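Q: I'm writing up a methods section and want to include an example of the input and output format. Could you take the sequence below and give the corresponding predicted structure tokens, formatted cleanly so I can copy it straight into the document?
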Amino acid sequence: MDKKTKNTDDKAEKIKEVFKDLDLKFQEQETERRAKAAGFAYFDLRNFPIDENNLILVPKEQAIAAQAVAFYLEGQNLKMGLVEPENQTAIQLINTLEKDKYQIEKYLVSKTGLDYALSQYHRVMTAAPTHNKDIEIRTNPKALESLKAIGKDDKIPETTEVLSLIMEAALIAGSSDIHLEPIKHSLNIRFRIDGVLQEIATLPLPLYIHLLSRLKLAANLKLNVTNVPQDGRFSVIKTGKPIDLRVSVLPSAYGESVVMRILGTEGVSVEIEKLGLSTRDFSLLKRELDKPNGMILTTGPTGSGKTTTLYAFLRYLNRGGVKIITLEDPVEYKIESITQTPIDHNAGMDFASGLRSILRQDPDIVMVGEIRDYETAETAAQGALTGHVVLSTLHTNDAAGAIPRLLDLGVKAVTLAPALNALIAQRLLRKICQQCKEIYKPNGEELKRVKQALSDLPEGQIPKNYVFYRSPGCAACHNLGYKGRIGVFEVFAVEAAIEKLIYEGASSQEIKKAAVATGMTTMQQDSILKALQGLTDLSEVWRATEE
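A: Here is the clean output for your methods example:
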């Protein structure tokens, strides 16, 4: 192409741009004239920065059909841009939004302005709160690598794709929780894998805004509320199977921090034989569970596997011919043929009042999510004395500490002693990867600690040779060295000697000493024995059971 031809083409393009600008200007002027004639306010949507929190109030398909868009929200005042105010779909849309307590301000906009607004929908997932659907997770074996690669080039995937990658990566890694943490210039993503938070990826901060909006929408949280905590839940679909997620949103210095707890992927299917109980503890608990009445408590901090243990007990007891009712906050896993009741504080339904109501339903077995106060503790103990099996949890450091705790809550010793059948304390230890594990020789100091911890075990329980293992990491365990978790326990039955100590108001140390004398293995001892079986390593033992 010669210089003269190129100059001619450039002039032609410039003329086209001039006419295009004139045409757009005429469209806006005509729209403004129509608005004035019809008594409407006018707004020029061209290049107006529409927040995605506003766009997602109306699905794109509905916006196209109604020729309308939500372009500004302040409190409950919502500004709507309309091309044809008489459009019946637009009228129905406005009626729906008004029923949702929005105060609508109508503006006439040009077709060009609406087209610009519609072009912004690529930034967000366009499901409305009133039409919330489960999110489909696309199968992607390399989701973890793809997630880490985001932001390393100029191309940023759409919000839907990023969310799908996060979910798929979490499921591949076996994560129990997903943490989205905004910092000054980026978004940190961390997964809790086998109880320990792992750094996964760092994403561009602008992407966080779109993710937050989509997650709030899915969990039915308030989009325009950013200064108070919010809780919700939603489901994702993976290969046709629903997976529930519990969402917590908390204000932080650089935005709202999001934690998603993945429910239903593990735990509920665990059977009592697979909890990791020793032969002695397994036999003792089966004996106590088979009794027609009495209370069994499991203790430990948050995340120690107490709920999993209680569900395993329920599965064992759910053998037909019995009525089982649970009281939970919230119901995390659903079990067929068991009546599961959620706590509802707004309706005045707490553990104490709920338990009283449950006992009037003539159950054989009752599971109470947690004992927190005198009323719940007293009602649970009375229930155990009147022919019910009562299962519950308590926050104490060890099994023996549960007894002074219940007495401190106000339960009388004459009620507590005959009501209690067994007490359990537990922790979860990460299992070393069985594919890359290797023999490990501890140093002299570690070996001394091991021998001292096992010194009061019966001679038959102490192995003759001390062989320990560790895992350096491989592809199977994502180079973490650990894969899966196993419970470690201390269990004792409340027999005559323990009952005597309850009546005497003995300390937890005295109760623990008596329990050890009856054959109880402490959690640290149980952990070391599992390390000697090649299930975990000593560093994990000391991390989880340091006394």
